[in-house]
Every structure is written in C-alpha cells, then in structure tokens.
Amino acid sequence: MNRARESYIGLIVKNAGIDTVGTAFNIVIMFAASVIITRTIGASLFGKFQISQSVFQILGVFAVFGLNTGMVRLTSRYIARKEPFAVKGTLFSGMLISAIFSTGIVLLVMALAPLIGQRAFPNVEGVDLVIRLHILGLPFFALMMVLNGYSQGLKTLKYSVLVELVSRPVIRLAAIVVLFLVGLRLFGVVAGAVFSYITVALMAFHFARKISPFDFKATRTRLVTRELFYYSLPLVFARFMNTLITKSNTLMVGFFRDATSTGLFGAAVLLSTFISLSLISFGKIFAPVISELWEKGDQAELEATFKTVTKWIFSLGLPVFLVFMLFAPALLRIFGDVFSGASTALRLLSVGEMVNAAVGPIGFILAMTGRQKLNLINSIVLACLHIVINIFLIPRYGIAGAGLATSISLGLLNIVRVIQVKVLYGFTPFRKDLYKPALAGAVTFGAFYFLKARLAWEALGPNLVLCAAFVGVYIMLLFMFGLREEKEVLLEILRRRK
Questions:
Q1: Rounded distance, CA 252 to CA 273, Å?
Q2: For residue range 471-481, what is the model confidence (pLDDT) as tens digits?
C-alpha cells in the first residue's frame, strides 16, 4: 500500500475511531433511555412518540436542506483552495438557509398539526399535541446538523462527536429522568428531546468557531449562499426520499394499525440500525476524502480506499446482523416482554440494514462526485415503490410487512447504486477477500445455531451471554482467516503516531 493511501486510511481510521467511540457511548445512553422510556410509558405511548419522531425526522430533512452534505463539500473545497473568507461564508450561509427553512416548517406544523392527527393517524388519539411540542426543537436540530457538516468538512470529528453523540443523549436522558420524577410521561420524553437540541446547538456553534483554521473574528465573510443552496437542492429531495424509505413504514403502521403496533415496530427499528452504525462512522470522514480525491483526479486511490472502507464496514456489521437472526425475541425483551412480538419485523429489517452495510458508503461516492441528480432520481423511484409495497403489505401482515417492505426497498436502492458506480467509474465496493469475514460469520452462525437449539435458553440474561460469546468467536475466526493487510496498515499508522 502506497504512502498516499496509507495517509488517507490513517485519517479515516483515526476519525472513524473517534466517531466509533462516540457512537458506542451514544448507543449505550440512547439504548438505556429507550429501555427506561418503554418500561415507564409502555408500548402505546412509545408508539405515539415514534410517530412524532418520524414526522420530526422527515421534516428535518427540509429543515437541514441537505446542507450538512453541502457544508462538507464546500468547506473542504475552499480549504483546499486556501480561501478562508469563503470557508467562513459557507458556515454562515448554511446557518442562514437552515434558519429560514426550519422556522417556516415550525409555523406550518403548528397550524396544521390537528389536521395531521385527524387525517393521518385516526387510530392514535392526541398525537397532534405531541407533534406540536416535538417540532419546536427543529430549528436547533437543523443548526446542529449544519455545524457538524462544517466540522466534517474540516476533517475534524471530535467536536461534532462530543456534541451529537455524547452531550445530546446525556442531556436528553437527564432531562427525561427529571421530568419523569415530576410526573410527566410522554410529554417528558418529548420535552427532554427539545431541550437537548437547544443546548447542543449552542455548543456546536462555539466549537465551530474554535476549530476554524483562521482568525474567526478578523477574517471577513464572503457568503456563498447561492452556491450552497443549488448544490444542496438535489440533496434535500434525495435525502427526503431516503428518509421516506426508512420512516414512512413507521407512519404507515400508525395509519393502518394503532399506537401499540407502532411502538413494537419502533423497538425493532431501533435495534436493526445497530447493524449499519459502522457505515455512519466511516462515512462521515470518508465523504470529504472522496471530495478531495475527486478534485485531484485520483480515481485509483479513491477506488482502493473505498473498497478497504467497505470491507471494514461489512466486517463490523455482519456479527450484529447474525446475532439478530438468532436471538431476536430475547433481545427485544429488553424493552419489555410484550416487545418480543416484533421479532419477525426485526429479522426482516436487519436484512435491509445488512445490505446497506455490505455496499459501504456508496451513496457518498455519487453525492461527492457531482452526481446529486442521479441520487435524487434513485431515491424518488425507490421511495414511491417503497410506499406502494407498504400499502400492500402492512394491512395484510402488520409490522412484519413493514419490515419486509423496508428490506426490499433498501436492497433495490443499493443494488442500483452499485450498478451505477460500476458503469460511471468502473469499480464496485467489493474486494476479493470479502469472503473472509463472510466465512467467519457463517461458521460462527452454524455453531451457535446448534448450541442455541441444544441449550433451549429462554431467559434474557443467558441469551445475552450467548450473544457476547458469538461476537467473541467471530472476531477470533476473523483473525484466524487472515487480516494481514489491515493489521500491517494499522500497526504502521500506530507506530507513526507514537
């Protein structure tokens, strides 16, 4: 491996490592919060929160307006061109655009929430009040995302990790616990979320000023509002369609079924996303690397780095996927015994998330090389297909149908992206040695399938022990089958950092 590639891999490993530690902390806190919430308010009220959260996240796409990705692109571009006034202008342009859009959305939702509740969720009483309270946090969420995009563009993740993955869940959990103690239940959950967004948005702005590689006060500002707007415009619709693929099923379960079914499905969704967490961590820092390599015209380096990152993401996501396949009912009991009824939905959702992890950050390849419109077309077609599949499956099969619809849509979206990247750039995400983690996973799965059947343990505690043992055996086999190149690269990176 040449020195240039090693430098990029080192950067990705270092920052992805920071993000992974932050993500691990975030998982623990958010998961603990979810368990506390579900065991305190139950599946029905949790279902109302899931509907409100899904509405928030879908509208959040328009509030953020694709600016987090646009900030990465333009910030890294102007840093490479040594134009600090344009870097500062990118920051303020992003804040201005997001403030306009998010404020407009809040006012619109406050006016239309009763109509949304009556027409969209006739079987979920009082959800309009929950949506109204929740949406107050939208401008601060959008500001946080824009500022984190600015940090990514500067190839610095530690402050965005501190804000989004560490501080926000801690503040949210603390606020929820306090509000529970004073007697609030569902509204305590929503108010805690809003308070956390307000707090971390202020923190994010402080850190954005701190990490800027120029004198923030002395540097003049050249706004790039028009450029940032038109770069982000295709991204917002693509992101909206992608969010529809992942969130519309929750809303449609609320429409076709009831709050309890929505709560059960929400727990399954929460667990399934663990599979692709490494994709999020590596993708955040890989995005500006793609932009830089594309600007330099170094497609060979881009391909090699992309394949390596994809293999790591696949290797990290595979054992989580296989654990869910084996132990879904037991793991869902963490939220309460009633939630084990979502085990089929969890398994079906996990298939889609595993496909996501298997192709790596392929969406960033298209977005960061000027193919935003192609991303948009992909997302529009597949989001429409996703909604149609949900309409067909949910009334017949309930939350299992929603899980199957999601997996079909995510699978098709990623297959299309792989074909497009192959046609446009001549490479795929897959390295020849990808069979090694696949083989390690297959052997471990086979062994634990028979062990689980023989032991016939039903209780949560013993099954958690088996899950931990599963991951340990997988890691041992992975190293036995050989990770020579990765070990050499990582060791060399560590030597140079001493």
A1: 19
A2: 999 989 988 87
Amino acid at 135: I
Strand, helix or coil at 333? helix
- Token pair belonging to 420: 């497009």
CA distance 110 to 108: 6
**3-17, 209-223, 279-293, 396-410: lowest mean pLDDT where?**
3-17
User: What's the mean pLDDT in 237-257?
Assistant: 83
Alpha-carbon separation of residue 269 from 33, 148, 251 (angstroms) = 15, 25, 13
Mean pLDDT lowest among 148-157, 180-189, 235-244, 323-332: 235-244
With respect to residue 193, please indicate whether it lies within any of the assigned structural domains: yes
Count: domains in the chain: 1
C-alpha–C-alpha distance, residues 183 and 179, integer Å: 7
Whether residue 452 is contained in a domain is answered as no
- Residue 222: its H or E element: none
> How large is the C-alpha radius of gyration of the chain?
22
Among 51, 59, 47, 66, smallest CA distance to 109 is for 59
Burial class of residue 494, CB neighbours in 10 A (0-12, 13-18, 19+): exposed
Half-sphere exposure of 170 (CA within 13 A, CB side): 12
CA distances 58 to 51, 63, 206, 238, Å, are: 11, 9, 27, 12
Alpha-carbon span 65 to 484, nearest angstrom: 42
Domain of residue 98: give its range: 3-430
Say if 448 falls within a structural domain: no
Taking the C-alpha atoms of residue 188 and residue 365, their distance in angstroms, rounded to an integer, is: 40
Q: Which two tokens stand for residue 475?
A: 């890691």
> What is the residue whose two structure tokens read 């192709």?
359
Tokens coding 293: 């390599």
DSSP state of 483: -
Q: What is the model's pLDDT at position 73?
A: 81
Say if residue 294 is exposed, middle or buried (CB neighbours under 10 Å; 0-12, 13-18, 19+): middle
- Asked if the structure places residue 84 within a domain, the reply is yes
Higher confidence at residue 378 or residue 147?
A: 147
How many degrees, rounded to 5, is the angle at CA 386 between CA 384 and CA 389?
115
Closest by Cα among 209, 187, 244, 231 to 387: 244
pLDDT tens per residue, range 308-347: 888 888 988 999 999 999 999 999 999 988 999 999 999 9
Angle (CA) 14 18 20, round 5°? 110
83 touches 379 (CB < 8 A) = no
Amino acid (one-letter) located at 238: A
Choose between 76 and 108: higher pLDDT: 108
Q: In this structure, what DSSP letter does residue 161 have?
A: I
Q: Tell which residue, 240, 247, 253, 362, has the closest CA to residue 313.
A: 362
Q: Name residues whose C-beta falls within 8 Å of residue 155's C-beta, 6 or more positions apart in sequence.
A: 11, 15, 76, 285, 288, 289
